[in-house]
Amino acid sequence: MKRYLYLWHRWLGIGLCLFMAMWFFSGMVMLYVGYPKLTPREHLAHLPALPLEGCCAVPMRAGADWAEGLTLSSIGGEPVYLLPRPGQAAQVLDARTGTPAGPVDAARALAAAAQFAPGAAAELQALIDEDAWTHSRGLDAHRPLYRIALHDAEHRLIYVSSQTGAVVRDATGTERVWNWVGTWIHWLYPLRGNALQPIWTDTVIWLSLIATLMAVLGMVLGVLRWRRRPYRSGSHSPYSGWARWHHVTGLVAGVLLVSWIFSGLMSMNPWGIFSHRPSLDVAAFSGAPAAPQTDTESLLRRFQADDWRPVELQWRPVAGRYWVTARSADGEQRVLDGRSGQPVAKLPVELLHGAIAAMAPHRQVQFEWLTDYDFYYYPRTEHSMLGHLPKPLPMLRARFDDGSWVEVDPATGALLGQSTPARRVSRVLFALLHSWDWLPLLERRPLWDIWMVGFSLGGLLISVSGVVIGWRRLRLRRRRRVRQGLQGRRVIEGQQ
User: Fold this and answer.
1) Nearest-CA neighbor of 425 among 403, 406, 444?
2) Dist CA 86 CA 262 (whole Å)
3) What is d(CA 90, CA 92) in angstroms, rounded to the nearest whole number?
4) Which helix (H) or strand (E) holds 186?
5) Per the UniProt record, which residue ranges are transmembrane (predicted)?
6) pLDDT at position 370
7) Which residues, other chains included, contact 45 with Cβ-Cβ below 8 Å and sequence gap of 6+?
8) pLDDT digits (tens, 9 = 90+) for 157-188
9) How much is the CA Rg of the chain, to the nearest whole Å?
């Protein structure tokens, strides 16, 4: 039986160690350079201040049009209302007239580029469905996308939605260069956006699963081959050269190597094991709000009373009332009661409790106020996978008796997230084991960096040494075959 364990580990390693070396190297790049995205901070920073005169004096149509909320922003230098639509891109309406905006053509795409980077020359490259920097499923509602090259200091590519005309992604030259050896190969993106797209998910899942099996076998065999009493060579390992490096490093860093490969498998949500959704009525949280009683111009005047210039307004329905959040270009936010127009520091606690309870009226709910981050709620650096999502404090968490959670920002009434027991298991098996999202490390950088880079180098050494050992094994087999072929030929010639 032991012989078969060696054979399985050897031949799986020959096939997979190259992938593992690639994963560890690209993973170290991803620690510091993430996949391109347009973060909320970048979005706000490239918006002009909302004009006060001659704009938006008449609010949108009341009633059902507002059921999902409303945003006043700018696209192509013009103020627009954005009406969210589930599963689709937002509907765009001219903020001055309330009428739907026309189709997004090349001229409107270039106008969006001019708003994003005033003064920079813009070159419309193509209308594309997907390319190396737009694989994210979050862009599906905006496809096809106008790809525009900006001749600015950062050599950006920006992508404009053909549905709304807004910039939905930017990728700097630096991001693109590092991503060729980072995210692009880490997630096997050469298989995406082409004829191989249907097999991408299964390929990543099965490679990760087999690599996990190979690494576990290696750990077992490494322990079996280690001796307390040294071998004749004086070493506790029977190997030398690259094989010894492979053996010893595997014993030191092997557990983390296994956890990283396995957690990478978990990141793919294999076979939908973490896909259980909370059975909560999100619409009940909003209620059935009446039309706002304060018009947009009056709201803008109140926000700008002390020369504060918002670039975006968002009407959010909570418990049958609208609350208006304004944000400036630097990310500062202020909130007004959409009914009275008065500023509020946070929404009334009783109102939030009632809105949350309405999501599941037949269940018991417990409320918890977080003033510090905890194991499930914490910030990450902006370039990381979900690091762009806001994590404000204090935060209101509601726990339902079926294990579902809801997290709400009391300052704005925004639903920050929903959670189930399955998702919290995913947080442990993926985020904790793969990125080491653990507050004692995250709050003590560079301790987190030393941990991640140090053990990544260990995993890379295990993988590279495995590649060398495998290459030598294949060369040795080839030489044996050639030698046997020559001997066989000599025998035949001797018989003749």
Assistant:
1) 403
2) 34
3) 6
4) helix 183-186
5) 12-35, 204-224, 245-262, 450-471
6) 97
7) 329, 330
8) 999 999 999 999 999 999 999 999 999 999 99
9) 29
